[in-house]
Amino acid sequence: MATGVPSYKVILHGEYGVGKSSIFRRFMNNSFTTATGKQSTIGLDQCSRTINVGSQDVKLTLWDTGGMERMSFIGSSYYRGAHAALLCYSVNNRDTFTILSQYILDIVMNAEGAKIFLCGNMSDQLSSETAANVVTDSDLEQFMSQCEDVLSGVYRVSCKDSTGLDEMFMDMAKVLHQDSVSRMTLRRDLIIPGHTPDRDVNPGSDKRRCC
Ligand SMILES: Nc1nc2c(ncn2[C@@H]2O[C@H](COP(=O)(O)OP(=O)(O)OP(=O)(O)O)[C@@H](O)[C@H]2O)c(=O)[nH]1
Ligand SMILES: [Mg+2]
What we know:
Elements: E1 7-14, H1 20-29, E2 44-53, E3 56-65, H2 67-71, H3 74-79, E4 84-90, H4 94-98, H5 100-110, E5 115-121, H6 137-147, E6 151-156, H7 165-190, H8 197-201, H9 205-209
Parallel strand pairs: 1-3, 1-4, 4-5, 5-6
Antiparallel strand pairs: 2-3
The structure holds guanosine-5'-triphosphate and magnesium ion.
The site of magnesium ion has 5 residues, from helix 1.
InterPro entries: P-loop_NTPase, Rab, Small_GTP-bd, Small_GTPase
Keywords: GTP-binding, Nucleotide-binding
GO molecular function, one term: GTPase activity
């Protein structure tokens, strides 16, 4: 039986430049860098943090990579065993938002069973100058109404000024742990000591199997 701190793997997902690595760095060491020029992530990074949810410690491990790696052979280890995907877009770039359904499909196909959390980053960039390209509250509401069964949490954050990040990590840890506890309870309730369900469903099946 597994012991120790429950551990959950979360992959970062979303368009180039929406701030996935910035979220990763805030998670890892609470830092933020403003890169001049395009610096896409190459390779795979992972980092863990222990978060206390109520009376229980849980470990969240974030995985970050660039789009090219996800499509290469590295991709399979990226998706494998993921409990969740943090699907990111930039609140001041509608293109990164309108493409989200493609990313949801990608997660569903490659990381079966992973919960999806939606994260709008760069909330510090919401201003009148960027208004034309901003993802509005009504855009978000419409998207959520279409995808409510798919989304396990919705957040708005800024890596630049740290708004909303710790609350998001805490909430994700809570949701993932609660889900895991519910599954274990369900499994335990289904197993009655000394009772083998298969035999009752098909009495006599043992005879047929006997050689
Ligand atoms: N103003 C502002 N800039 C941000 C924020 N988050 C990230 N950035 C900047 O956005 C740029 C892209 O951020 P990254 O974290 O590299 O984005 P990414 O999604 O990892 O990009 P890829 O690796 O290419 O997929 C960098 O110049 C960051 O400094 C934020 O919350 N506010
Ligand atoms: Mg990156």
